[in-house]
Description:
Layout: H1 4-24, H2 32-63
Amino acid sequence: MKYLKYTQFVYLFAAIFFVYKAIDVWSADSDEHYLFLAIAALSVFMFFFRRKFAKKFEARNNSK
């Protein structure tokens, strides 16, 4: 389960990508930038959620 330490960073990369896409389409007439910003915010939330979960999982394994 060592890969859990690294999969949380995928969410950070996704957030950076979606912020970039939101900035890229900001000048367009559509409202797509709101969708990209919402996905980026969700990705940042998931990063912190997974980080907390991984720390709890590691602490539980160390206590055994």
